[in-house]
Amino acid sequence: MPILYIDAVPVRVDDTGVVTRVGLLLRMLPDGTVSRALVSGRVLHHERIRDALVRHLEKDLGPVALPRIPVSPQPFTVAEYFPTPGVTPYHDPRQHAVSLAYIVPVAGDCRPRQDALDLVWFTPEEAASPMVQGEMTGGQGVLLRQALAHVGCLP
Amino acid sequence: MPILYIDAVPVRVDDTGVVTRVGLLLRMLPDGTVSRALVSGRVLHHERIRDALVRHLEKDLGPVALPRIPVSPQPFTVAEYFPTPGVTPYHDPRQHAVSLAYIVPVAGDCRPRQDALDLVWFTPEEAASPMVQGEMTGGQGVLLRQALAHVGCLP
Amino acid sequence: MPILYIDAVPVRVDDTGVVTRVGLLLRMLPDGTVSRALVSGRVLHHERIRDALVRHLEKDLGPVALPRIPVSPQPFTVAEYFPTPGVTPYHDPRQHAVSLAYIVPVAGDCRPRQDALDLVWFTPEEAASPMVQGEMTGGQGVLLRQALAHVGCLP
Amino acid sequence: MPILYIDAVPVRVDDTGVVTRVGLLLRMLPDGTVSRALVSGRVLHHERIRDALVRHLEKDLGPVALPRIPVSPQPFTVAEYFPTPGVTPYHDPRQHAVSLAYIVPVAGDCRPRQDALDLVWFTPEEAASPMVQGEMTGGQGVLLRQALAHVGCLP
């Protein structure tokens, strides 16, 4: 069966809701390479999606990130990560994962935790640039640009 | 882990996209009671969500229903069916299932198949009426009204 | 030409994004009757929609309401208020108005201003109750239930 | 006041709802230059948005295009065309126009009409390519890529 995931795109916003920065984690992959990544993880048995969002955001951004979890369960898109490349833009060699993707404004202090080496806040232009996109894997660069398109900040 | 489902609300539409009818199946439940239901079922390993939609619509409505699968993977809502009643409006005593819900116009001939006893096309008003709502179980009546709200036909 | 409006549904949320209360204004209508209403108003020439949202929320809820304007311009629905009743669920005898509808969490202190007599925070159940729905006009009761459906709180 | 518009992205889809082609019109602009464009136009007084969609699609694609108007009034985004460049990604030197943007599968024969010189069906990759994007004006290239992001076909 497919595994249920959430993907969260952490963003900073101004008073009118305009996205000014996108937060990307720097992760060490199992093969020793380093890549930029969204907040991402499984939904557990008996866990609500909104609780999974809170848990993974806290795990990756720390306990005082103050994420503003979306009021609606409607994700901006659904990313289907297939073990076979090319079925969709998303790829996960380990498993078939279906991820509900949300954009989450965070208002507090963020510090990378767990397996994340760093957290960098990029402007939408930087986040969509070939350099940053080239540092993302598994189709998360596409997912990030879909998020930017949804908030009206696609360069 | 939660099981991934799709829920599809089959609808008839006029030339301007207005929903004129909602299709509900009549199912015999394991305990012998009868209830009205949406098209619903699991997403399989290695199966795209849009292929799961096609498969379940064909299974329940027959091979010439001519469903118009949505172009966007964005569902109108996500229904979280918990084995414990009351966590969300949705309840499934067998399992924790997370269902991506889509509204699917169907243009062809529909005939109930498999375990469905009948298929009835209701007006939006009838579908939202206490009588029809009372014949739906597990929170699918709520899901149906959410679909009607999304298409602007909530009485 | 149709006049462009915004409708905002002010809500209180918990830490996981669940809507716990919906804020409704009490307004005196020109004919002397009193009705419950959403935050609503025109978009001005040269004004962005997100600036119109900020302006009308501040006008109706005061300067320290701290509204969290949505990051995406995608409204949860579009309400078409026709001067002729019955074309859509929405009705405005004065004009043809097309309103982009958003759900806006507010975190600060709210106090009714301008032409609003009062502001009351209802639970989703109360907001959808026949009593409160009966106190709303022009189809805003339908719009409110559409908002509740979108956030998964439709009773 | 802002003028209310609709933008429609005509697409061809396969049986599972995947977008296979995007239709772009070739228009002669007032200054004699030629540009690729979406189906676009005003909403009239007393006209429903879905009727405006039908009217403009028929005007630009002909009477047998068989457009499948979306069942939900929720647009995938709202494009705010300002007369001042840079306020948003969208620009219209003539006026402040706010456009509700929809993706519309068309199943029939399309032929360009009125002021359109031609209609070309591009793959999503071609539509997002620098060459085609360079032939679009007023931010419609951005809008087109937002549509591709929404349907999961952003290259």
Automatic annotation (TrEMBL), chains A, B, C, D:
It holds the Pfam family DUF4916. It comes from the Bacteria. InterPro entries: DUF4916 (IPR032582), NUDIX_hydrolase-like_dom_sf (IPR015797). This is DUF4916 domain-containing protein. It comes from [Actinomadura] parvosata subsp. kistnae.
